[in-house]
Amino acid sequence: MGRRQFLTTAAAGAAIAFARPARLLAGDAAPSDSISVALLGVGAQGRVLMEDTLKIPGIRFVAVCDIWDYNRQYGQRYLRKFGHSVRAYHDFGDMLEKEKDLQAVIVATPDFWHAPHAIGCMKAGKHVYCEKMMSNTIEGARSMVRAMRETGRLLQIGHQRRSNPRYLVALNDLLGKANLLGRITTANGQWNRAVSADLGWPARAAIPADTLKRYGYEDMHQFRNWRWFKKCGGGPLSDLGAHQIDILNWFLGGPPVSVMAAGGNDYYTNHEWFDNAMVLFEYRLPTGTARASYQVATTTSAGGYFEQFMGVEGTLKISENPKYTSILREANAPDWEPWVRLHYLQPWEAPALAPTDSDDAVADARETAELATYGLPVVLRKPVHQPHLENFFNAVRGKGKLNCPADEAFHSEIAIFKACEAVYARKQIQIAPEETIA
Amino acid sequence: MSSNETSQTCDPGATWAFLTLRLWLGARALLSGIEKFSEKVTIEQPLRDATGAPDPSGAVVEIQQKVYGLSHYHAIPEALTTKLLQEPLLPQSLTTAFLGSLGYTLIVLGAMLLLGICTRCALGLMGILYTLLMAGLLLIHQEDGVAWLGIHAGLIAFALALSRHNRFALTRKC
Hints:
- The complex is a heterodimer of chains A (438) and B (174).
- Chain A has 14 helices and 17 strands.
- In chain A, helix 2 links the parallel strand 1 (35-40) and strand 2.
- Chain A has 438 residues and is an alpha/beta fold.
- The two termini of chain A are 33 Å apart.
- Chain A has a 10-stranded mixed beta sheet with strand order 14-15-13-12-11-7-10-9-8-17.
- Chain A folds into 2 domains: 10-161, Rossmann fold; 165-196 and 228-351 and 370-378 and 405-436, Dihydrodipicolinate Reductase, domain 2.
- Chain B has helices at 3-9, 12-35, 78-86, 92-115, 119-139, 143-161, and strands spanning 38-46, 60-68.
- Chain B has 174 residues and is mainly alpha-helical.
- Chain B is flat and about 70 Å long.
- Chain B folds into 2 domains: 3-37 and 74-165, no CATH class; 41-72, no CATH class.
- Chain B has a two-stranded antiparallel ribbon with strand order 1-2.
- Residues 1-8 of chain B have low confidence and may be disordered.
- Strand 16 (378-379) of chain A pairs antiparallel with strand 2 (60-68) of chain B, so a sheet runs across the interface.
C-alpha cells in the first residue's frame, strides 16, 4: 500500500469511526428539552402508545392525526385531560405541513400505511417510532430502511421486547455472559389467542364511503378489521407472530435460512388471512444448526404466549408475561449457584406432584429426570411499551442508541413474509442472505 | 434432706436427661416465639454483576428476604386464625387475646427454661399453654397439630417428673 493510499484509507476509516450513526442516535434535542410529538393513528395500539408516552417526562403531544373523527376526538380529549393541548388532523400531509416544530411522530396506523407515513415523516425531518410490522410488503419495509438512511432520521420499530430489561438480561447475561443454555439446538414460540368477534363501530360514527376508498379501504368492516385483509395487513403471523419471531431472530443472532409452514382458514369464514399457522425455521448459528417452531392460533388460547430456547445445558422459556417465564437446568450442566447468588436466577420451589394411582408406577425408562427449575427475578414495573418508547426518546435526545432500528427489524420482516409465503406454497422456502439485507 | 433424695438429685444421668429436656423445650419455645415475629418480604434492588456494577440494562430484581420485627407478628397462619375466630365454642375476645400474646409467652417461657428461672413453674405454664393450643386445634380439626402438641406435652410431663434433678439454673425455687 502506497503512502497516499494508506492516508486515504486511514482517513476513510477515521471518518467511519467518528461519524455519528444517525440511524441510532439523533441528539438534536438538549437533554433537558421537551420533545414535541404527534400521534398518527389513534386506534387501539395508538392509544396504548399514547398512554405509555404520557408516563415519560419531557414529552409534549402537539398533534393527533386519524382519518376517523371518532378516534381523533378521543385522542384530542384524552390528551387534554393530561394538559396536552393538541391540534387534530384528518390528513397526515396537512399535519406535517402545519406542525413545523414537530420533532417526532408515533405511527400506529394500519400496516399498509406504515411505509408512506413513516417515509413522509422522515422526509419532513421528523424522527419516527413506528409500530410493527414495518409494512405489509417487503418492498414497503425496504423503502423505510432506505428512507431512514437517506434522511438520517431515527426509525424505531415497535418490537418493544427489545427494550424490556427481562429480555435484555436473558439475552446478554443468561445466554451471553453465563452461557447457561450451552449450545442452542432448538427453539419454539407460540401465541395462542381465543376466538374473538370482528370489531364493530357505532353506526353514527361510520366514515363516508368515499373517504374510506380514498384511504384504501373497501368498507367500514375492512377499516375496523384491516388486520385480516391482505392488502392492509399481514394476518396473525404478522400481528402476533412478529413480536416473537423477532425474538427468535434476536436471540439466535440473525434471520433464518429456510422456512416451511402450514396454516389455513380453519374457523373464520370472512377473513382473507389464515386463522392458525405452524411454522418451522432453520437457523445457522456459529455453533451449528438450530431449528425453531412457531405456532400462532387465533381460535384457542390455552398455553398463552412465550418464546423458548433449548440448549444442551438448559432451557429458557420467556414471555412478556412473567408467569410464563422459567429457566430449566439440565442435569449435566455446570453449577448455576453463582448466578443464583447474584440474583440472575431464582430457584423455584417445585409444586407437590399429584399422587399416582399406583405406588409402583414408573416413568418411561427413556424419560429424562425432571429438571431443576429457576425463575427470572428481573421485574418491569412499567407498562411493557414504555421502556421502548423511552429508548426512542432518549435516542432523539442523543442519550442512547435505538434498540430496534428499522434495518435490524427488517430481518424479522423477511422471516415473517417468507413464513406467510410458505403457508400458501406448502413447501420449504430458502431465505438467501442477500434477501435479508435492506 | 434425706439420703434418698440426695442420691436422686446427684444422679448425673437424670441430671443430663433433665437438662436435655429443659434445653430442648426452652429452645423450641424461644425460637417458635421469635419466628412468629418473622416474615418473608419481597424487596427490589438493582441487578449487579460479580464486581458489584449495575447491569447495563438497568434491570431491577425482586428478591425474597426474611425480616424480623414487631410489625411482622403473626401467631399462627392466617387460615388457621380465621378458622379459630369462626369457631363457636371459642370466645372471640379470648381467642384474640391468646393469639396476640402467644409469641411473647413462648419467648418468655423459652428464655425461663433456658436460663433456669422458675423452671418448674415455666414447665407447668408451658404445659397449660400447649394444652390450650391443642384444644383450639382440635376444634378446627387440625389433627396433625394435636398429635405434635401431644408429644410436647409428654416431654413436659417427663421434664416435670425429672425436675428435682435441675442444675445450672439461675433460680432453684419454684
